[in-house]
Amino acid sequence: MKADTLHTIYNSHGLSVKILNFGGIIYEINTPDKYNNFKNIVLNYKDINDYYNDTYFMGAAIGRYANRIKNGTFKLNDKTYFLEKNDSENHLHGGSNGFHKVNWNLKSKSKKSIHLTQLCNEKTYPGTVEVELIYTLNNDNSFDIEYIAYSDKDTIFNPTSHSYFNLGLEKTILSHELQINSNHILEIDENGIPTELFLDIKNGPFDFKSFKTIEIDIKKNDIQLQLGCGYDHNFVLNSNQKFAAILFEKNSGRRLKIKTDQPGIQLYTGNHLRGNFIKNGGVCMETQHYPNSPNCDIFPSVTLLKGEKFYTKTSYYFDIIEKS
Fold this sequence. Notes:
It is a single chain. By secondary structure, this protein is an all-beta fold. The protein has a single domain (about 5-320), classed as Beta-galactosidase, Chain A, domain 5 (Distorted Sandwich). It is about 0% helix and about 40% strand. The protein contains one helix and 26 strands. The chain has one helix spanning about 225-230; strands at about 5-10, 15-20, 25-30, 40, 60, 70, 75, 80, 90, 105-110, 115-120, 130-135, 140-150, 155, 160, 175-180, 180-190, 195-200, 210-215, 230-235, 245-250, 255-260, 265-270, 285-290, 305, 310-320. Strand 12 and strand 13 (about 140-150) form a beta hairpin.
């Protein structure tokens, strides 16, 4: 990979983000701890070339459809489409040649923003989609991810970002404290597909309405935790949310607050990380529409109509707090 495909943006407070053209990958996010020591807080490969063979969607842009589609099929406008099955019998994260495996084009760059584009015309999905991906690091220490898209045919569209965060110095994120503004998760079956049942999570292992450590309930005797091998579930975000989720690591004092216009957030605690990484070495909080939505009429629609503008924005706010 050419060195000029790695771009750095930064703000006036010394925060910086490094982005790869390949996969639209967030390679580094460097923020200070309470002692003003700067550290990269997302998992990455030290050798950039390892991203070509990555199977963990490490830091990548995800699309055309984030998460799983049951049996790799869906129907749109009375026509059935057959997608690649790259997750057992399911389609996952756009398939093996999704957004995470393409070279994005650099449209523009400034000291605080990267604007990437691509023409998305996989034969298995309907339509050709023009996609814009904009990363912006602001002086209020927020980091914005924006997607803009247009399609020449009716299609489905559900992008996200797949960074694994670790805000501290420990090898795992199990001691991180987490809060999610949600009262329900989507129940999953043995293949990680929503059953269309919204589970009330009050006082259970999935209840993150108040801060608690990730490790406190992750090994509880709970069928949903067993099916996900830990947390790998979509949380239904409350409509009155200011922040969808807040992650905190007490030793560093780092705090990450997430704001989004999406209806769900997929919490994944790195349950299957191996090789260059370790189990639970990072946590993903993927803002998105629900898994398998094209096959579930009760879920919010993910149909992008011909000529209609798609827009979504998720913002990450970085700060430092002392918490007793």
